[in-house]
Amino acid sequence: MQDQLGDVVYVELPEKGITIEKEETFGVVESVKTASDVYMPVGGEIVDTNTALVDTPELINSGPYADGWIIKVKMSNPADVDSLLNAKAYSEHIEN
User: Fold this and answer.
1) Which domains does the chain have, with CATH numbers?
2) 8 Å CB contact between 45 and 14
3) DSSP the chain
């Protein structure tokens, strides 16, 4: 997803400690192209947020699997992951 947005210039993070349901919006990512809501892939409590993104939102582009993470979640229902796509299926989905 991050590469389709273009250069990320702003990230809105949720508060730690709140609980958000699966598929609800938890934040916003703005790029030079557009602003996009970010949705919870699983329901649960926000246990950590990457506050480094406030000052350096471009980390989402340069290291989405390292320094560019957005939130950490304590899942309320671990079975939620069963409905998620794996990396290959997700890549195919966004290509189509």
Assistant:
1) 2-95 (2.40.50.100)
2) no
3) -HHHH-SEEEEEPPPTT-EE-TTSEEEEEEESS-EEEEE-SS-EEEEEE-THHHH-TTHHHH-TTTTT--EEEEES-GGGGGGS--HHHHHHHHH-
**pLDDT profile of the chain (96 residues), mean per 10:** 71 97 96 92 97 95 91 96 91 86
Contact 36, 28 (CB under 8 A): yes
Single pTM value for the model: 0.84
| Token reading at 81 | 């992951």
Cβ(36)–Cβ(25) below 8 Å: no
